[in-house]
Amino acid sequence: MATTRRDYYEVLGIGRSASHDEVKSAYRKLAKEHHPDCNPDNRVQAEEKFKELSEAYEVLADKEKRKLYDTYGHEGVSRQFGPGGFDFRRDFTHVDDISDLFGDLLQGFGVGGGGGLFDLLVGGRTQSRRRSRGGDIRISVRLGLDEIAESVTKELSFNRFERCQECAGEGGKGKETCAACRGQGQVQHRASSFLGQFVQVQPCSDCGGTGERVKEPCKACSGDGRVRKPRTLKVRIPAGVSAGHYLPLHGEGHYGPAGNGDVLVQFEEKEHPLFLRQGDDVAVEVPVSIANAVLGAKLKVPTLGGEKEVEIPAGTQSGAVLHIRGAGIKHLDGGVGDLLVRVVIHVPKRLSREEKSLLKKLDESKSEETPAPRKPAR
């Protein structure tokens, strides 16, 4: 892992809105450029650079990891890797991309040549499967605008796999080499296509990719090494989250020999009957009488925290937007949005004779002409 935690987008030289194909293309170009076998005079530095590029690609090429990184930065994805940070053998999950990304450079990675970076990437993956991290759990939480505006604590209940206490997670007594894969944890299948024969490598279904089988399976967990149990957590949700944001709860996921996975709390927003969210601002429409719009007035308007008084300036036009500073939603990184009050002049449908007479007199004595038609604003 690189000693400095540079921004992953900066590492690959791409913008934050880059598409998956652009991420892949940037990695292909830079990985070839910094491949250690292409830099024999500077191999150590090239290998460190290649690791940094691969860590960035591992995150940005994965939709969920990228969303976590975009929301929470390095902290959001740090537990996606094992102890000590990103490691090729354990954490690089895009091995299937290697032939596509590097093509004929595979020879340079040590295929048939004795070691090299390809062995660093692919070699030893059977061992990493034996000491795999537990799976993640995804939970959706629906929040109202009032809950999003301020920090709120939610109680989450879910089931997860925990370490079996009877067999200490071993699955039973005694281990033997899996006969199906001969301890490799993976098996090869030969298939034919119009391009010719090819070999497909898959995890061994008999041992689950571990390379070993238990002689006497544990009765408590049926040889799995894990048992399903209920779990309840109280989680503080920060103000300002949006639909699609994730909150990672590190180590609260399923049990695994190399550590528990995470719980990923994904947020959904409930539609509010009165307010409309616009980023960290909240918008509301307030009907105003003709008299108040013309003469000006002080009116009480609803906010997420209760009613507040707002001044309607004389001559306010329908569609005008008034800002109440700090009455919106708290930013994730500090500060507060505004309440946007959109004025809608209410035109009464029923008028008394006296009201009609007054309006006619007002129209006849008007001191300002009605503006001419104009092109609508975009």
List the main descriptive attributes of the protein structure presented here:
single chain, 378 residues, alpha+beta, Helix Hairpins, HSP40/DNAj peptide-binding domain, 4-stranded mixed sheet, 12 helices
Provide structural commentary:
This is Chaperone protein DnaJ. CXXCXGXG motif repeats lie at residues 164-171, 178-185, 204-211, 218-225. This protein is of the alpha+beta class. It is built from twelve helices and 15 strands. The strands form six sheets. It has a four-stranded mixed beta sheet. Strand 12 and strand 13 form a beta hairpin. Helix 2 (20-33) runs antiparallel to helix 3 (43-60). The protein is elongated and about 100 Å long.
CATH architecture of the domain at 1-123: Orthogonal Bundle
What count of helical segments does DSSP give? Answer: 12
Please identify which CATH superfamily of the domain at 1-123 we are dealing with: DnaJ domain
- The beta-strand count equals 15
- Give a short account of the largest sheet: 4 strands, mixed
Mean model confidence by pLDDT: 81
What's the helical proportion of residues?
25-40%
Tell me, what's the shape? elongated
CATH topology of the domain at 1-123: Helix Hairpins
Task: Tell me the distance between the termini.
Answer: 50 Å
Detail the poorly predicted runs.
103-130
* Percent range for β-strand residues: 25-35%
Helix-strand sequence: HHHHHHHHHEHEEEEEEEEEEHEEEEH
| Order of adjacent strands in the largest pleated sheet | 10-11-15-14
Radius of gyration from the alpha-carbon trace, in angstroms: 31 Å
Q: Which CATH class of the domain at 1-123?
A: Mainly Alpha
Helix/strand class: alpha+beta
Protein name: Chaperone protein DnaJ
InterPro entries: DnaJ, DnaJ_C, DnaJ_domain, DnaJ_domain_CS, HSP40/DnaJ_pept-bd, HSP_DnaJ_Cys-rich_dom, HSP_DnaJ_Cys-rich_dom_sf, J_dom_sf
GO molecular function, one term: ATP binding
Cofactor: Zn(2+)
